Amino acid sequence: MPFLLSYFVYIRQRYLKSATELKRLEAVSRSPLYADFSATLEGLTTLRAYRLEAAATASFQRQLNTNVQAWFSFLYVSRWLGFRLDGCCSVIVIIVALVSVGMRSIVDVGLLSFAVVYTLSLSGLLQWTVRQSAEGTLILVV
Question: Is the pLDDT confidence value at 9 over 80?
C-alpha cells in the first residue's frame, strides 16, 4: 500500500502541474471570446452596414478555436490521469489475483476471493480520492 499511495501522490502532482496551467489558459482564452461576442451583438447594425460580417465571424472562430484547444488539452490531461490510475489499479488487482491463485491450497478460497474483491474496491476508492483531491485543488488554484 505505501508504494501505491506514493505512486498516486506522484501522479497527482504531475497532473496538477499541467492541469492548473491548462485551466488558466482556458480561462484567459475564454474572456476575449465573451467580450468579442458581446461587442459583436452591440455593434451588429454597424457590422452589417459596413459588410463586416465575414471578418467578425472569422475573428470569433479564431478566438473560439484557441479556447477549444485549451479546453481539449485539459480534457486530454484528465484522461491521462485516469489512464495512469486505472493502469496502476489493474496491476495491483492482477498481482493480488496471481498471489491468490498461488495460495489457493494454503488459504481458504473464499478468503482469497474476499481479498481480490476488496483490493478492487480499495483501488477504486484510492483512485476516486486522488481525482477528487486534484479537482478540489484545481478549483482553489484557478
Answer: yes
